[in-house]
Design a protein that fits this description.
Blueprint: H1 6-24, E1 29-35, H2 39-55, E2 58-64, H3 70-82, E3 88-91, H4 101-105, H5 119-126, H6 135-146, H7 166-175
Parallel strand pairs: 1-2, 1-3
Length: 180
Amino acid sequence: MSIIDGKEVSKKIKEQVRLEIANNNYTPCLLVFIVGEDPASQIYVGSKEKACKKAGIESKTIAMPASTTQEELINEIKKANNDKNINGILIQLPLPKHINSKEVIDAIDPNKDVDGLHVVNQGKLLLDQPGVIPCTPKGIMTLLDEYNVSIAGKNAVVIGRSMLVGKPIALLLLQRNATV
């Protein structure tokens, strides 16, 4: 049994992305919205910024106070949807309790929804159509592919049912003919 080295695969993918960006002479831009002062979210956004930098992707963050209304946040998202210089939009979760996360996520242009949480992207995943796949499940599948782990016919256990990890990984495993 071999050990799966996620850090090594991550390094390899970031370098491939960096080279592809350099060869295309175009720098894509990720815009992250963070609402409130959640310390874990602050750390996570910082790590995303570092990862973008290593891959040659521009990263911008719009930090909004916890008192931001849902309407204010959606208005900013609509501006980003229409900005041709913004290629991807990410909403750092969790949002304050007075903001409906689902409505906010569905305000994102599905083509700019880097988390794959928009109803259109979730539907495409369910129907096994090309679309944006949430990053952790996509990463899991990439690791399994990188190490040539056969999934077909295997039993797979998924603990959790979140829209960001549990449900998408279950669907991806089912698409590869695992019994989940």
